[in-house]
Write a structure and sequence with these properties.
Strand content: 5-15%
CATH architecture of the largest domain: Up-down Bundle
Distance between the termini: 49 Å
Order of helices and strands: EEHEHHEEHHHHHH
Strand order of the largest sheet: 3-5-4
Number of domains: 2
Number of strands: 5
CATH topology of the largest domain: Four Helix Bundle (Hemerythrin (Met), subunit A)
Length: about 230
């Protein structure tokens, strides 16, 4: 029987295996830009860094390939998926397609528990955004985690686990661009998050869709106007 630990809800859960931990670390290192776009992933060099064997690493990188985070080069091995303007546009369009639909469903079905998740997640995000606006850039990764938690909370009552899983994967690919190219629009983005919160509490899905579209398009405009990509 595996060792057990207690999660925040009091339930006993099995800790992640070494291979699963390595998968999460590599995935996170790609999303947050510690492994750079186009970087060749040499198994021998990765092995000491992540503490797993060659076969486990090959399995992890193969698993990350259909997620769009790694590309396989046939006999030449693996590399971190490259970034491009066209890829970002496609990912942004997919995010909007999935998230807007989930947003409408979630606003229709959300209960008080859902409202609580939305309010709590926005509170953390707003506090961290205020810190960033004050000039503290030391918690960028935590900021994006809270950003994800807020957007995930907004759609969490949509009623479809499959849709949430697809949204999660697309969001992570979108997030990689934000982290690699340091896309932070400051007060504009923070105000859009506040407006989305207000829409959620009023169940105004139509206005929320428009704000979300402006939110994502603003990110693209910022990247392209500043020639980050």
């Amino acid at each position: 029987m595996p060792d057990l630990m207690t999660d925040i809800g009091g339930e006993e859960v099995a800790p992640a295996s070494t291979g699963e931990q390595a998968y999460e670390r590599i995935r996170s290192d790609i999303i947050f830009g510690r492994l750079r776009p186009g970087q060749r992933l040499t198994l021998e060099k990765l092995r000491p860094a992540y503490g797993v064997g060659i076969s486990t690493l090959r399995e992890i990188l193969s698993r990350l390939t259909p997620e769009g985070l790694v590309t396989a080069e046939g006999q030449r091995g693996f590399q971190v998926a490259p970034c491009s303007a066209e890829d970002l546009k496609e990912i942004a369009a997919l995010r909007l397609l999935i998230e807007k639909d989930a947003l409408v469903k979630s606003f229709q079905a959300g209960d008080m528990e859902w409202e609580g998740r939305v309010v709590a997640s926005h509170h953390k995000l707003a506090r961290l955004e205020a810190s960033l606006l004050a000039g503290d850039a030391s918690r960028t990764q935590q900021w994006k985690r809270y950003d994800w938690e807020f957007h995930q909370a907004l759609v969490s009552a949509c009623g479809s686990k499959a849709q949430l899983d697809i949204h999660s994967g697309i969001y992570d690919r979108y997030l990689r661009y934000q982290m690699v190219f340091v896309i932070f629009r400051g007060l504009v983005a923070a105000d859009e998050h506040k407006a989305l919160l207000e829409c959620a509490l009023k169940r105004d899905a139509q206005k929320a869709e428009a704000i979300l579209e402006r939110h994502v398009q603003g990110c693209l405009d910022f990247a392209f106007q500043n020639r980050l990509i």
